[in-house]
Amino acid sequence: MDIExxxxxxxxxLAEIARTLxxxxxxxxxxxxxQGARSVERLAELTGLSMANASQHLQHLKRSNLVATxxxxxxxxxxxxxxxxxxxxxxxxxxxxxxxxEIQSVISDSLTQRDRLEGISREELLERLRxxxxxLLDVRPREEFEMGHLPGAINIPAEVLEEHLSMLPxxxxxxxxxxxxxxxxxxxxxxxxxxxxxxxxxxxxxxxEWKAAGLTIETGA
Length: 221
Description:
Oxidized Rhodanese, domain 1, 2 domains, 8 strands, about 50% helix, ArsR-like_HTH
């Protein structure tokens, strides 16, 4: 009976987390706070929610220990809580890809493109960084870059990359990354670089996974 009670307690906790995550708006909010700490005002703007709705969803996430808060003067900033939350989001994405044909059709072109682009693992990238034999390119928006990025990375947002290719070395391999393994910004960036004669590869993860692994990051411009 004790075992049954313990199992019920465990699955009750899992069900509560599942209920909290059962909202597209909360999943969107989690994706944004995974990039760095943000205020409710900025999160409302990014997700298209009203301030009241964004605040309500964030409180649900906080009660389930999925986001944490900190004070910055009079503002309250929300960030991803400790634990394998990025891994949970990644697992949900993979499950959705497997089960839902309409989601698969949306991302299939991107995944097919990623398959034909040679990637680089986190371990290999760390070795290349130690050798100073690679240039890191962060193609996320400037705001996300300034909140945190891989050491020594250059920030050129994907939408303006073609206009700023001169900022990149022509004789040095470039490794592009963005928000995670399913972020199409880096895929598009590598295609653009290669079309312009620059040797380029994808990082097979993104900034949230790098940060979650406890690796060194930098902040600011």
